[in-house]
Amino acid sequence: MIKISREIKDFFAILIQTKKIEIEANLETMKEKVEQNSEKLKDTEINKESLEKNEKAKAKTSAEKSDEKKAEEKSDEPETAEKESNEEAKAESEEKKLKQQLSALNDKYLRLTAEFDNYRKRTLKEKIDMTKTAGEDLLMSILPVVDNFERGIKSIDEAKEIDAVKEGMNLIYKNFKEFLNQKGVKEIEAMHKEFDTDVHEAVTKIPAPSKKLKGKIVDVIEKGYFLHNKVIRFAKVVIGE
Q1: Residues of 29-54 as b/e, b for ≥16 C-beta within 10 angstroms?
Q2: 121: three-class secondary structure by DSSP
Q3: The pTM is what?
Q4: Which of 43, 70, 76, 236 shows its CA 20 to 30 Å from the CA of 172?
Q5: For residue range 197-229, what is the model confidence (pLDDT) as tens digits?
């Protein structure tokens, strides 16, 4: 019994010793963890303080900048007001200048419109007058020829010799031809000429009187005329074949 009791006592002693060692180890571990947590807490507090300091510094810097900006704006207010005043005065001056230019342009436009309207009316009147009196110069020039014809007709009744009548008629015809030449009217040559479609109009064809006249004009039915090199009437002719 005594032997067993000692063994039990030794067992419990060993068990207690083992538990003690475990407890001491656990205490040591817990102590290390506490120290680590303390370090972390300390670091956290340090970081918190640092952050607070930074925030305060930033707030202070921001406040200082805000104050500086307000001070600058306050100091720039007179300059800004003066600048705005100058700009307004300049804008008013430009507006006044533009209004003057617009007024001048409107006045010029009204004058030009009135001048054009007067020019249009004057031109229209001149055109109407020109249409009415377009042949005035021509008629004035032909009146002397009419006078000669009247004299010739009057002399026919009183004439006793036919030769005198013929001479008078030839003079009138010559006078009239000169009048036409003065106005730019010229006879188109046709008789015994080569047929030219630009100035001649063929009425018919007949046998040529001679070999030389084959393909040429052998008779003129109606004379043709130029007016300043422009054909105003084609010569109606007969062509030999």
Answers
A1: eeeeeeeeeeeeeeeeeeeeeeeeee
A2: helix
A3: 0.44
A4: 236
A5: 999 999 999 998 888 888 899 999 999 999 988
